[in-house]
Structures are given as structure tokens and as C-alpha cells.
Amino acid sequence: MGREFEIKFSASNHQLESIAAQWSGWSELAMETTYFDTESSTLSSKKYTLRRRMENGSCVCTLKTPAPGFGRGEWSLQAPWCAETVAALFEAAQVAPVAFEKLQAVCGARFTRRAKILELPHCTVEIALDKGFLTGGDKEIPLCEVEVEVKSGSEEAAVEWANTLANQYQLQLQHKSKFRRALDLAKGVMYG
Could you tell me which of 14, 33, 36 has the C-alpha nearest to residue 133? Predict the structure, then answer.
């Protein structure tokens, strides 16, 4: 099983730039994400996320499923967006598949990610600085956030480090995923 464990924080542009200045050697990715569901919200009602993300022009398809705390099941394939790829993701996750022809784009995101792997005591994390827009319906809202994802080692140590970073830069914990916020936007829910 794939597993993702990440903590997200809302940030301002100033906070992102201050964090970026703390380290050198960031990699940069241009990302365009499209999230898919059925007309009757088959996936989101189960808290599943199905997305196609273009990362510097390369297609990465991902299925995420719920898990406790900051964790989530995650399965990804660098492959074209097609029925075979989506079926393989559902099979890997061992969840009931949804017919490819029933899927429709429901919302999305366009952003630039600056990322860096950090070797910390007891864990390795990727810190990502995301800036761009969430899209839903014909609307968009700014996206500016920090993600700390555990790559290996102690999740507790990563949470402690992420909380220290949040305190240092006065970041606010973001409880909703990009998908949930973009889906809310598509449904007309606005954030202040």
C-alpha cells in the first residue's frame, strides 16, 4: 500500500519567501491538477481523491483514500490519463472501481511548487512551497501554502519539526486538502 503523511499550513507570500530564503537548492515544478469524480460524487462521498497532475509536462495520475490523522493512502502512476491507468489505481488501492466514462472534471489547481528534501534527526521530509490558484466552476482563489511530507523515518519527529517551523514563521494549520477547498469553490463555498 502507498501511504502519504503530510501536514499543510496556510501561508502568505511573505512567509513562503522567508522560508525559501532559509535553504538553497530548491527544485521547481509547474503543476496543473485536475480532480475527477462522478456526477453523483461517488468518490468524494467516500473521501477518495482522484487526480491527474501535469508536473513540468509529465502526467502523474493519483488515487488517495482516507487514513487516520495526517496520513492517507496514496497510489500514483506516471502514465497517460486513460481507462487502463485509472483501473490500475483502483486495483492497487483495493477499492471498488468507478467506470472511466462516468468520471468528469470537477475542480482543479494551477501552482508552482518549490520543493526540498531535508534530512532531519529521526526522519527525512520534503518541504514544499506552493503558490498559485485553486479552481472550481468558473471561479478561482489564491493558493499559498507549505507542505511537510514524511519521506522516511519517524512521523512524530516530522510533526514536531513541522510545528516548530509553523511557530517560527507563524503559519496556520490547513485542515482541508487542495481538492476539498477546490471542490468547495466549485460548490460555491467561499473562504475569507
Answer: 33
b/e burial code for range 43-54 (CB count within 10 A of at least 16 → b): bbeeebbbbbbb
Residue 13 contacts residue 131 (beta carbons within 8 Å): yes
**Averaged pLDDT of the chain:** 94
What mean pLDDT do residues 61-70 have? 88
Task: Give first-to-last CA distance, the chain, whole Å.
Answer: 37
Phi-psi bin for 137: left (phi > 0), alpha (psi -120 to 50), beta?
left
Distance CA 44, CA 48 (A): 5
Are 109 and 33 contacting, i.e. CB atoms less than 8 angstroms apart?
yes
- pTM reported for the whole predicted model: 0.90
Give the percent of the chain with pLDDT over 70.
98
Closest to 29 (Cα-Cα) out of 108, 106, 116: 116
Provide φ and ψ at 79, rounded to 5°. -160, 165
Percentage of the chain surpassing pLDDT 90? Answer: 89
User: Phi and psi for 3 in degrees, rounded to 5?
Assistant: -140, 135
Alpha helix stretches (DSSP H) within the chain? 13-22, 83-93, 155-169, 178-186
